[in-house]
Amino acid sequence: MAHLGTPRSNPSSCLNTSLIKSTIWSFKRGATLLLRDSLPAPSPLPTQLQPFDPSTPLLPESEHVTETNHRNQVYERVGPYIFQFAAGSFFQNNNSILIPLTEYVKEAISTTLPKPTHLVDTYCGSGLFGITLSDQFDRVAGVEISSDSIKAAKVNAEMNGLGEKTEWLCGKAEDIFGGLPEQGFEGGKSCVVVDVSLIFRYPAHK
After folding, report:
1. What value, to the nearest 5°, has the Cα angle with vertex 194 and ends 191 and 195?
2. Fold assignment, 96-201
3. CA–CA separation, 159 vs 83, rounded Å?
4. Which single residue of 30, 31, 75, 121 could bond 130 by disulfide (Cβ 3.0 to 4.6 Å)?
């Protein structure tokens, strides 16, 4: 997994080649080299009470960092929102398409009549669509089978001041859908976004 197109993710500058050469044959089932482009960690970290300021200037790529440990946290900016997630978790690697992708979905939803007031983000991962589309809805619910992703989505919602507007549910989408109407997400006023890339990541739960 790599962001090879970014200046900071040049393998020659961020990999410990000596360590790789000395340990490569110890991995009996193969190994993955992780090069993940990241913003530096915000200081202090945004919270629900002190959320991320969307007017914060964008950092040039030259100030980005590269994370090689899949357990460590990385940070990504998508328009006025910031995201935090484990470096080895699933998040769109091609960060140049994040804004066009989310804006395309937002535009498609805007043509729906009557305009939905509630959003259900299925296979939500760490909350990309639920959070970036939240300004179009009164309430947002995210559904995901990965408990680690749900934890990340909750943190991301709070970092962007959306903790009270969003709800993140862990379990199979088909199991959770049945209880959503009782929580205000009736079909007549709700919109469903399905991230197909995450479905293919969990093929047993299509």
Report:
1. 140
2. Rossmann fold (3.40.50)
3. 8
4. 121
User: How large a percentage of the chain has pLDDT more than 70?
Assistant: 84
Average pLDDT, whole number, for the chain? 85
How do the domains of the chain map onto residue ranges? Answer: 7-93, 96-201
Predicted pLDDT at 16: 66
Query: Rounded distance, CA 205 to CA 18, Å?
Result: 41
Q: Can you name the residues that pair with 139 across neighbouring β-strands?
A: 118
**Can you name the residues that pair with 183 across neighbouring β-strands?**
none
Query: Any residues with CB less than 8 A from the CB of 10 and at least 6 apart, and which?
Result: 4
Q: What is the pTM of this model?
A: 0.83
Which amino acid is residue 124, in one-letter code? C
* Nearest residue to 136 via CA among 166, 163, 156: 166
Nearest to 137 by CA among 177, 99, 110: 110
